[in-house]
């Protein structure tokens, strides 16, 4: 059964980049949200094995999303994927309950290592179809 991953970022291009990197790793069921409010609604109404969230978004930001997720579940891993690299910001995220932290820009290898840490070894995807290559 594929792992369910929630990708939260206000930038559609960043969501597509992460989605493609996950698709290259193996079978994931990926749900996208453009902001923290949509992500929280999705999280509360469904089951996820991993959440990847941006910090800076309109409306509910990633930090408050992490705090809300932690009120619902302490066990679902949450990886913050952000441009925020100052130590004080990283500390804030850790205190809010993030499981790991990735600073943008990141490499495919970095994202894949972090995801494997929480989702285990995922079989490699056999192929990427041409439709997966469009629009981003």
Short description:
With 136 residues, the protein is of the alpha/beta class. It contains five helices and five strands; from the N terminus they run E-H-E-H-E-H-E-H-E-H.
Task: Set down the secondary structure blueprint.
Blueprint: E1 3-8, H1 12-25, E2 28-33, H2 36-45, E3 50-53, H3 62-72, E4 78-82, H4 87-96, E5 100-103, H5 108-119
Parallel strand pairs: 1-2, 1-3, 3-4, 4-5
Helix pairs in contact: 1-5, 2-3
Outline the structure in words.
The chain has a five-stranded parallel sheet, with helices on both faces. The chain has helices at 12-25, 36-45, 62-72, 87-96, 108-119, and strands at 3-8, 28-33, 50-53, 78-82, 100-103. The protein has a single domain, classed as Response regulator (Rossmann fold), CATH 3.40.50.2300. α1 crosses α5 and α2 (36-45) packs parallel to α3 (62-72). It is an alpha/beta fold and 136 residues long. β3 (50-53), α3 and β4 (78-82) form a beta-alpha-beta unit. The chain is built from five helices and five strands, in the order βαβαβαβαβα.
């Amino acid at each position: 059964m594929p792992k369910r991953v929630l990708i939260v970022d206000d930038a559609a291009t960043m969501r597509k980049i992460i989605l493609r990197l996950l698709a290259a790793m193996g079978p994931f069921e990926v749900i996208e949200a453009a902001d923290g409010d949509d992500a929280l609604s999705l999280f509360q109404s469904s089951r996820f094995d991993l959440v990847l969230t941006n910090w800076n978004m309109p409306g509910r930001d990633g930090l408050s999303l992490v705090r809300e997720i932690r009120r619902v579940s302490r066990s679902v891993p949450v990886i913050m994927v952000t441009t925020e690299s100052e130590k004080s910001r990283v500390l804030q995220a850790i205190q809010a309950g993030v499981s790991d932290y990735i600073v943008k820009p990141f490499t495919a290898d970095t994202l894949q290592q972090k995801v494997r840490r929480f989702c285990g070894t995922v079989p490699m995807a056999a192929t990427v179809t041409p439709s997966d290559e469009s629009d981003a």
